[in-house]
Design a protein that fits this description.
The protein is mainly α. It has a domain of about 60 residues. The protein is about 60% helix and about 0% strand. It contains 5 helices and no strands. The chain is elongated.
Length: about 150
């Protein structure tokens, strides 16, 4: 209920309450406010129970929090997995993909690239005849132009 009130704001409210109502009337006021809050809560709980009773037994698992659109969507998508969304969500390994990209940028060979190269060429060093496009060459041959990368420009 008061998640967005900070400690300084709370202290300011307490000081204002003491100044406005005085130290004599403040305990009685706090007690009255807490009684009102208790009555409102009991009224809302009895109203929820009446609504559940009127809806019937097929709505016995109905929660009023489900009326919040975020909660409803989360419950329908996360709990009810008819479409296989959990499998799709688990198939994405963003950390592994980012590590592969970082290894490619730094010229290192990642574990998955090493496995793929070993499977394709039969060795780790890539001696199967295909050039390793991720490795930088030492120097250009005389008269040879550097490679043009349209994505980099």
């Amino acid at each position: 209920m008061f998640n967005d009130i900070g400690p300084m704001e709370l202290v300011t409210l307490v000081v204002l309450a003491v100044l406005i109502f005085g130290p004599d009337k403040l305990p009685k006021l706090i007690q009255d406010v807490s009684n009102v809050i208790r009555k409102v809560r009991s009224f809302s709980e009895s109203a929820k129970q009446d609504i559940r009773a009127e809806l019937g037994p097929e709505f016995k698992d109905f929660e009023f929090e489900d009326l919040n659109p975020k909660t409803f969507v989360r419950k329908q998508l996360m709990d009810n997995d008819d479409l296989g969304l959990k499998e799709i969500r688990n198939s994405f390994d963003l950390r592994k993909d980012m590590e592969e990209v970082a290894d490619a940028v730094h010229g290192r060979e990642s574990a998955t690239a090493t496995t793929a190269t070993t499977a394709a060429n039969g060795s780790v060093n890539g001696s199967g005849g295909t050039p390793d496009l991720l490795k930088k060459r030492e120097k250009l041959d005389p008269g040879e132009r550097p490679p043009f990368d349209a994505d980099a420009t």
